[in-house]
Amino acid sequence: MRALPPVPGATADATLKAFVERAGGDPGVVGLVLSGSQVHDGMPTVHSDHDLHVVLRDRDASPLSELDRFRSAHLDLVVLTLEEFRHRGLPGSPDAFSRYSYVHARVLLDRLGGEIAEILDQKRTLDEDEARTAVDGFLDAYVNQTYRSLKSYRDGRDAVGHLDAAESVPYALEVLFALHRRVRPYNKYLRWELERQPLGDERWAVELLLPVLRRILADGDPHTQRSLFGGIEQTARAAGHGEVLDSWGDDLRLLRRPA
Fold first, then answer.
1. H-state helical runs in the chain
2. Full pLDDT tens readout for the chain, 259 residues
3. Which of 68, 126, 138, 216 could be 181's S-S partner, Cβ–Cβ 3.0 to 4.6 Å?
4. Rounded Cα distance, 166 and 63, in Å
5. Which listed CATH number (3.40.50.2300, 3.40.1790.10, 3.40.630.30, 3.30.460.10) goes with 12-124?
């Protein structure tokens, strides 16, 4: 029997409620997890839909498996098996990019005695080893991209220097959040995260960090790049990641502000 698409209600909330009741009556469904703007207080707008993850015992357990990637104005569905849910968003998986969607997600149904919630909790933060590996990798990538950019500016190639500067920003954010064992948020939620759970150091306060990032994205300003690098270098060294930085040797001189 083919799965019928969700019946649209008068509102997004009504559509979600009806589908949750339908999925809750399906014995093949072992979990329902809500994510997206609806789990970020203050973020939903009149245009916001509901992002729902439907966890099945296995692919043949329910006809709802046919609704994976269903999209409508009210409801977006990700339908996956329990085994797929265990690994989704984790390092090395093809959908590692989706990790942040689980950080503030809410469990609407857990038929496994708390197992859905436990799996979800493992995705919310980085464990100690994962965080150290992430910082080392992203820090090296950030230094590499910033070095490429500043070399181009030094050599009069401003246009390509600007492009490399823009590509350094995601790596910088990955480093800053991983240093706190946190998953880097999607850009949409960056201000939301920084306002509600600051990164500690005043340099990373939302009113200071965002203008720095926007300036680098706008024109790659070398002075601003060096200012950001100085803060990241100091923070990374204090957290025990100096070896990654020292591997760059004298090349770091180009990244530092003149004394």
1. 12-24, 82-87, 115-124, 128-154, 158-178, 190-196, 206-219, 222-238, 242-246
2. 578 889 999 999 999 999 999 999 999 999 999 999 999 999 999 999 999 999 999 999 999 999 999 999 999 999 999 999 999 999 999 999 999 999 999 999 999 999 999 999 999 999 999 999 999 999 999 999 999 999 999 999 999 999 999 999 999 999 999 999 999 999 999 999 999 999 989 999 999 999 999 999 999 999 999 999 999 999 999 999 999 999 999 999 999 988 6
3. 126
4. 44
5. 3.30.460.10
